[in-house]
Design goal:
Number of domains of chain A: 2
CATH topology of the largest domain in chain B: Rossmann fold
CATH architecture of the largest domain in chain A: 2-Layer Sandwich
Number of domains of chain B: 2
Bound molecules: zinc ion
Strand content of chain A: 35-45%
CATH topology of the largest domain in chain A: Alpha-Beta Plaits
CATH architecture of the largest domain in chain B: 3-Layer(aba) Sandwich
Oligomer: heterodimer
Largest sheet of chain A: 7 strands, antiparallel
Shape of chain A: globular
Strand content of chain B: 15-25%
Number of strands of chain B: 21
Number of strands of chain A: 7
Chain lengths: 143, 442
C-alpha cells in the first residue's frame, strides 16, 4: 500500500525547480503532487510522479541527489472531522507523522493526504482497521 | 624484536652513505656546499650576480649554518630564466630535459647531465629499497610518461635495483588491471588519486584478491592523506609509502619513507634541507614547521641554491629505527600558496580533504570560501552530497552537515559553516590548482 515518493535535494538556486520539472515533462513523467521544504541554503523537493522508477535515473544523470522514499496516501472524505480521525488513529498507535502534504485528484474526486510516518506499515494497518481509506499506488501513479 | 609484516630486515641500496654517522655526513655536506656555491658562481650568470650582491663565496662558508647568507632561489627566478638561463653546463653536456607543467604561464625546466641521471637513479633506488622494493619485484609505472619527472625517475631508479619495470603510463584502467593480474605485478607507481581509482575499479570488477600479487605502492607527485592511504591499501592490498621530489630539485628521490613510515628520509648527501619561517624567512630550529628550502649538492646541469619549495613540513635529525642517519621530513602538510590563516589558525585544504574522504553521504570534492563579515573571518566549506544519499528525512541532511562540521572542528580547531551542494556541482580541479575563494579583501 506504499507509494514511492521522489525526494530531491535542491540548492536554493534560481531556475533549479524549473529545470527539474522540465526534465520530467520532457520524459513524459507526470507530476501528481509536490511539496517542498527549505531553509536558507537548501531544501528537499518531494514529488509524487506517474513513473518514479523512470524518474530516478533520469534525475541522477542530471547530477541530482535523489532517493525514493515510501509514503502512504490516505483518501479523505470532504466532511468535517475526517482528517482529525486519521491523525487521532495514528496518535493512538504511537505512530509519528514526519511530514505530510495533500493534493486533490480530479479522477478520484477527493482529497488525498500523503504521509511519511515513523512506521508506514503500522500506519496502514491502523488506518484500515479504523475504516479509513488507504489509497493504493496504482491509483496514485495512474488514476 | 619483530619487524612489520612482510619485512625481513632493513635493506639499503647504498648502506655506507645512508647510515653514515652525522658528523661525517655534515662534513661531506659542508665540503659539497662550498664547492656548489663556487660552481654556481662560475657557471650560472644568475647566481654570479646574486652571490656577488650578497658577497658570498665558497670559502666564506665555514659551517653549514652559514648557508643562511646565501640568497634564496624562487620559482619565479627559475621562470624568469626560462628556458635555459639556470643551466650550469653547455647543451652538449645535457642529455635530458624534463619540465613540469605550469598552472600559470611557462613550464619549469629541468636539465640533466649524464652524471645527474646516474645520481638521480641512485636516489630513487634508495627510496625504492627503503620502501621494501627488491630485485624480484615487478613494478607497473602508472604515472603519465612524457616531460613529467615522476615516471622516468622511478623507471630508472627501479631498473637500477634490478626490479622489472612495466612502463604502463596512466589511463586505460581495464588494461592496467589486466596487467596487474597477467604479469603478476607486485609494485605500483602512481599518484595517490589514480591508485585510489584503480583500487575502486578493482573492487567493482569483483576480482578475487588471490589473483593479485600487489604488495608495494610507491605513490607520489601529489599529497596523500592518511585516510586515502588506508583506502588504497585496503582496496589494492598493498603497502603504500610516500616519496617526495620536484623538477626544480631533479624529481622524485629527494626524500622517501622507509619501512617504518615515520617521515621521509632525505638523500642528505645530495640535498641540503632547511626549514624557514615563510614570512620572516628566518631559519627555524629543528622540529618547527615551516617552508622547506633545499640546496642541491651534486647537481651539475641545473644546480639550485636555497630553493624555496613552498611546501610546509618539519624536519627531525633523530636517528631512525631503520638505521638511516639522514634527516626525515614529515609528510608535506600543505603549500604556502594554499595555506589559509583564519582567525589566526593555519588551515590547509589537505586537512579538509582528509576529513571529507572518510565521511558518509558526501563526496571528497570541496570548495572553501573565506569571508569577513563584521571583521571576523568566516570559513565556509561547500561539500557535495553523493547522488545516492537517502533523503527520507530532512533531519538526515542536517545530521550530515553536523557530522562534517564536528569533524572539521576537531581537526582544524575552528568553527566552519558547512554547506551541502548538489553532486558534481563543484568544479573539478586538475592537479594542484586551487579550491579556495578568499573574499576577505573585498
Ligand atoms: Zn627510517
Amino acid at each position: 500500500m506504499q507509494i514511492q515518493q521522489l525526494s530531491i535535494f535542491v540548492e536554493n538556486k534560481a531556475g533549479r525547480l524549473a529545470e527539474i520539472t522540465e526534465l520530467l515533462a520532457k520524459a513524459g513523467v507526470d507530476i501528481r503532487a509536490v511539496s517542498a521544504t527549505d531553509t536558507s541554503d537548501f531544501g528537499i523537493l518531494r514529488l509524487i510522479v506517474s513513473d518514479p522508477e523512470k524518474a530516478v535515473p533520469l534525475l541522477r544523470a542530471a547530477g541530482m541527489t535523489v532517493s525514493l522514499t515510501s509514503v502512504i496516501a490516505v483518501g479523505m472524505m470532504d466532511v468535517p472531522g475526517a482528517f482529525a480521525k486519521a491523525v487521532r488513529t495514528l496518535a493512538d498507535h504511537a505512530i509519528n507523522v514526519d511530514y505530510m502534504y495533500a493534493f486533490t485528484s480530479r479522477d478520484m474526486g477527493k482529497a488525498c493526504v500523503l504521509l511519511h510516518t515513523s512506521d508506514n506499515d503500522g500506519a496502514v494497518k491502523a488506518l484500515q482497521s479504523a475504516g479509513i481509506e488507504v489509497v493504493g499506488a496504482e491509483n496514485i501513479y495512474r488514476p | 624484536m619483530r619487524f612489520p609484516i612482510h619485512w625481513g630486515c632493513s635493506m639499503f641500496f647504498q648502506k655506507e652513505i645512508e647510515t653514515m654517522n652525522r658528523k661525517e655526513l655534515e662534513e661531506l655536506q659542508l665540503c659539497r656546499l662550498k664547492k656548489m656555491v663556487d660552481y654556481c658562481y662560475n657557471n650560472v650568470p644568475f647566481y654570479h650576480e646574486r652571490l656577488n650582491q650578497a658577497g658570498v663565496t665558497g670559502d666564506k662558508i665555514k659551517c653549514l649554518s652559514d648557508i643562511q647568507y646565501i640568497p634564496f632561489t624562487t620559482k619565479d627566478d627559475i621562470r624568469d630564466n626560462y628556458p635555459f638561463g639556470m643551466l650550469a653546463q653547455p647543451m652538449k653536456n645535457i642529455v635530458r630535459i624534463h619540465a613540469s607543467s605550469g598552472t600559470t604561464g611557462k613550464p619549469t625546466v629541468g636539465a640533466y647531465t649524464k652524471k645527474d641521471l646516474d645520481n638521480w637513479s641512485d636516489q630513487v633506488a634508495r627510496v625504492a629499497v627503503a620502501a621494501g622494493a627488491r630485485e624480484d619485484d615487478i613494478f607497473q609505472i602508472s604515472f603519465g610518461y612524457g616531460l613529467f619527472t615522476g615516471a622516468l625517475g622511478l623507471h630508472y631508479g627501479l631498473e637500477k635495483i634490478g626490479a622489472t619495470v612495466i612502463p604502463a603510463s596512466s589511463g586505460n584502467t581495464s588494461k592496467q588491471l589486466m596487467m596487474f593480474r597477467d604479469f603478476g605485478v607486485t609494485g605500483l607507481v602512481a599518484t595517490p588519486s589514480y591508485a585510489l581509482y584503480l583500487g575502486e575499479q578493482l573492487r567493482e570488477a569483483g576480482y578475487p584478491a588471490e589473483d593479485y600479487k600487489l604488495r608495494l605502492g610507491l605513490l607520489g607527485s601529489e599529497g596523500c592523506t592518511e585516510k586515502m592511504r588506508e583506502q588504497i591499501e585496503a582496496t589494492l592490498g598493498l603497502r603504500v609509502t610516500d616519496n617526495y621530489g620536484m623538477t626544480e630539485l631533479t624529481g622524485p628521490g629527494v626524500s622517501g619513507e622507509c619501512e617504518y613510515r615515520c617521515g621521509l628520509h632525505f638523500a642528505e648527501d645530495a640535498f641540503l634541507p632547511e626549514i624557514i619561517d615563510q614570512d620572516t624567512l628566518e631559519p627555524l630550529e629543528e622540529g618547527k614547521s615551516g617552508e622547506l628550502v633545499v640546496t642541491t649538492l651534486l647537481r651539475e646541469g641545473m644546480p639550485v641554491l636555497r630553493y624555496r619549495t613552498k611546501d610546509i613540513t618539519r624536519i627531525t635529525y633523530e636517528p631512525c629505527r631503520c638505521g638511516r642517519t639522514h634527516a626525515r621530513m614529515e609528510k608535506v602538510m600543505g603549500r604556502t600558496d594554499d595555506m589559509l590563516i583564519i582567525k589566526g589558525v593555519n588551515v590547509f585544504p589537505s586537512q579538509i580533504e582528509s576529513v571529507l574522504i572518510g565521511m558518509e553521504g558526501v563526496g571528497p570534492h570541496y570548495q572553501l570560501v573565506v569571508t569577513r563579515p563584521n571583521f571576523l573571518d568566516q570559513l565556509e566549506v561547500k561539500v557535495e552530497l553523493l547522488p545516492s544519499t537517502p533523503l527520507d528525512r530532512y533531519g538526515e541532511l542536517e545530521a550530515i552537515q553536523r557530522r562534517v562540521h564536528d569533524r572539521l572542528k576537531s581537526v582544524l580547531g575552528l568553527e566552519t559553516k558547512v554547506t551541502l551542494v548538489e553532486p558534481k556541482s563543484l568544479e573539478r580541479f586538475q592537479g594542484k590548482a586551487k579550491r579556495v575563494l578568499d573574499l576577505r579583501g573585498q
